[in-house]
Design brief:
This protein has 2 domains: 113 residues, Roll (Ubiquitin-like (UB roll)), CATH 3.10.20.10; 131 residues, Cytidine Deaminase, domain 2. Strands 10-9-11-12-13-14 form a 6-stranded mixed sheet, sandwiched between helices. The protein has a 5-stranded mixed sheet with strand order 5-6-3-4-7. The N terminus is likely disordered. It has 8 helices and 15 strands. Helix 1 packs across helix 6 and helix 7 runs parallel beside helix 8. With 269 residues, the chain is an alpha/beta fold. Helix content is 27%, strand content 31%.
Length: 269
């Protein structure tokens, strides 16, 4: 059965709270989502069942399964009792490359490298991100200030991460949410690729910045990744190598810039 793009991302149930009568609570959905390429099953991730075409495209691009949007011909969503399958039809060359490096894994929430078969699959051979016009540091702060108001699923469930794009004027777009932080970023990157956006501006995430999130951002050509929480040491080393500006603890008027501060423009830099 082929279904619509967005399934219910949340559900309501009755809960008993300490010291009060039972009440209705809203919780985020988390379902197995399988990605299938040209009829061959590739991976299963646990994800929020919303913006799944963005997720399929973003995952395919950031994992190097396809090199460009044009290599994805079609995406269909099939819902079954046990979960959801994303059927992708991709170009023959991309499918041939996938078969060479194919892996099978069962993803956990927030897991970005689960099931990689070798160390070479962890560290992809990516070119450094190109230098760009200095980006206003104030735009990052403004983008993070605006983001909570657009996290509709987080407001009702308190259980999901978000990612978005921020422009030099502080405006944000392509806000995507998911129980998995990597999934949220993949959804945003898929949405950006779907509108053929030039990789400019910055990416914001409401989580820590880990190795694979730096890798996903750089794979799509974005030079700035800013997180509300901390980066890992591996993320910092990779960002430095890939010429990516990595910002952590972006809260209020403060932040920590770990790599390539030259890309950011601000009075205190």
């Amino acid at each position: 059965m082929i279904v619509l793009e967005n399934m219910p991302a949340k559900t309501q149930l009755t809960v008993q709270r300490t010291g009060s009568a039972s009440q209705v609570d809203t919780v985020a959905e988390e379902v197995p989502v399988a990605l299938e390429y040209n009829g061959i099953s590739h991976t299963v991730m646990l994800a929020t069942p919303a913006d799944l075409k963005d997720f399929a495209l973003g995952f395919s691009l950031t994992e190097g399964i396809v090199e460009r949007r044009s290599e994805v011909f079609d995406i269909e969503i099939e819902e079954a009792e046990e979960g959801i399958t994303l059927h992708l039809e991709i170009a023959g060359g991309a499918f041939a490359r996938l078969k060479e490096r194919r892996r099978s894994l069962a993803g956990r929430t927030g897991c970005g490298l689960c099931g990689a078969e070798s160390l070479t699959q962890v560290m992809r051979d990516l070119p450094p991100v190109a230098d760009s016009t200095p980006f206003p540091l104030a735009a990052l702060h403004e983008g993070m200030r605006r983001l909570p108001a657009q996290q509709q699923l987080q407001q009702t469930t308190g259980a999901v991460h978000a990612a978005c794009h921020v422009s030099a004027d502080g405006s944000i777009s392509q806000v995507r949410e998911d129980v998995g932080r990597h999934n949220a970023l993949d959804k945003t990157l898929g949405a950006l690729a779907g509108i053929d956006a030039v990789p400019e501006g910055a990416l914001l995430i409401t989580s820590r910045a880990s190795f694979e999130m730096v890798q996903k951002s750089a794979a799509m050509g974005y030079g700035i990744l800013a997180a509300v929480s901390a980066p890992t040491a591996a993320a910092i080393r990779l960002a430095d190598k890939l010429n990516l500006t990595l910002v952590g603890f972006l809260r209020g008027a403060n932040c920590s810039i770990y790599t390539h501060a030259k890309r950011l423009q601000g009075s205190n830099l």
